[in-house]
Amino acid sequence: xxxxxxxxxxxxxxxxxxxxxxxxxxxxxxxxxxx
Length: 35
Description:
By secondary structure, the chain is mainly α. Helix content is 83%, strand content 0%. It has two helices and no strands.
């Protein structure tokens, strides 16, 4: 299912961004507000 693949990719990107931004609390706060 294309939508399932897209959803999985979206979650992977979200996790990667969250890990990459652990040192930037402001960016992480914005990320949680958008999620």
